[in-house]
Every structure is written in C-alpha cells, then in structure tokens.
C-alpha cells in the first residue's frame, strides 16, 4: 500500500508538470523546461501544517518530498522559496537535496515564524517549528554569514504567527544575488503595513548594486494598491521590480490590461478551489519579483495541484540576465 501510494503521488506530480508545460490552454508566454530562459525560480506555499498528509507515515512523508524534488529537478531550479513550511518537513527536503553531488546539490537557510504549530506534528512530533526556507542550487552556494530574518510590522489585531522576511546572498549562475522570501499576513490592515516594509528592505539591497529575487505568498492581488511599492509599472506603482508572470496575455483582462500591452500587473491564479475546498476564491497571490535592472525576458507559470501536496499552486518563473 505504501509503495503504491508513493508511485501514485509521483505519477500525479508528473501529470501536473505535463499539464503545466503546455498541454492545457495556450499561453502567451509559453513556459517549458525546454524553452524558458536559463535562470529558474520556484515559489510555493506548501501548507505544511494545515494540509494533512494523505499518509502521515515515513512512506507518506517520503512521497511528498519526492514529488516536490521531482518538480524542482524538472524545472532545473536555481532558487526555491517555500512558505508555510514545518521544520521537520524542511529537514527532509534539505536532506534530499543536500545529499547529492556537485551542482545537483542545494544549500539552504531556514527562518521560523512560529515556535510551534500543532499540525506540524505530522512531520515531527517533537520539533514543530513553522516558517520559511530558501534553497539555492549548488553546494555552498549561499554566502556564509548572510542569512537575515527581519520581523515585519503587525496590524493592531496581531496574528499569532510572526511575519518575517528571510534573506540570504546566494550564487546565481556564477553571480551573487540577494534572495528573499516572505509570507504576508492576509488581513488588509497587515498587507498595507507589511508589503511596503518588504519593498523598503529589499530596495536597500538593490540600491547597493545587488540583483534581487523576492518571492513569497503576499496574500494580495497584483492590481491592489498595497502592491504599488513593488511593481515598476501600472497605475500608482512606485517600485523597481518586475514579476515573472506579468506578460501572459491570457490574463490581461482588467480595464488597465489591454491586449496591446506588453506587460500588466496580472498573472495566473496561484490559489483556487481546484487546490483545496477551503479556498473560496481564485486569485494570484504568490509572486516571484526580480529587480528590473538586472533581469530580462521574464516568464511565469502556475502548475496544477496534485492531490495531497498543498492548497496553493506551485509558481515557477524564469528570466535571463540583463547584462
């Protein structure tokens, strides 16, 4: 039974990859492992605590990790940003990726946003920390001593989870970039405080001349005013970033997103009822932002949801160096 479950989950993940690679509706910015630019990114809210494993056993945990690793490898991913990640879950992913040789290995940093989440006991009944992680391709690719965790401002009705920005300098295709990952509180009062603070923090790195990759679950849609501080285009924008899925014309549906535009604050949904019955609406709330001066030819795609993986779509992105 355990072996058959593992095989089924791996097959479902492979089917999801094929659907995301172009067998579904035609995309204006076709994103496949064969045609995408060479720099590859993944942002994924993995719902490690609230989404129960189909089988909370060693075999079930191994199957989940194997499914994620297959997707990471199929995309030849350089930087991976994971949110809602249990510490025990992170250790299993870390061990699966770090135990490989050469460029197939991954370096990683972790940041806790909650000291204990009861539902994380499906990954480790003792250490139930909950938070974020960054994985960077290549053994030792994260620059030693550059990990930082910054606590974000909270709304008056404070969430029980600390909202943080996790960053580290990482080697990206023989250059060094600042990689940052966050998970913004879903309340309107909190996003209004936290998104501009994240923009200010990553802007400091950009002004220092570093390429910046910022990813995460922002719990806000692209056109909302809270996102103005990140985007460098669109009504009210004051930021310096582009987003990987901003040029998919299939999603140019708003009044300020005409089909004649080259890019728009839009994108494919990353949260939808197809992933979880607990998700009421369909919206893009997960992002991979890239500093505009350093990257070009951005592409993005949200993959289907294999059962038992998460209540979010995995967002994968790609770009090339500007110079």
From TrEMBL:
Q: Name one Pfam family in it.
A: Exo_endo_phos
| GO molecular function terms noted in the UniProt entry | endonuclease activity
Which regions form coiled coils?
A: none
Span of domain Endonuclease/exonuclease/phosphatase: 42-312
**Record key words, sorted:** Endonuclease, Hydrolase, Nuclease, Signal
Any signal peptide, and if so, which residues? 1-28
Q: Does the keyword rRNA-binding apply?
A: no
PANTHER family reported for this sequence: CARBON CATABOLITE REPRESSOR PROTEIN 4, ENDONUCLEASE_EXONUCLEASE_PHOSPHATASE DOMAIN-CONTAINING PROTEIN
In its UniProt entry, what is this protein called? Endonuclease/exonuclease/phosphatase family protein
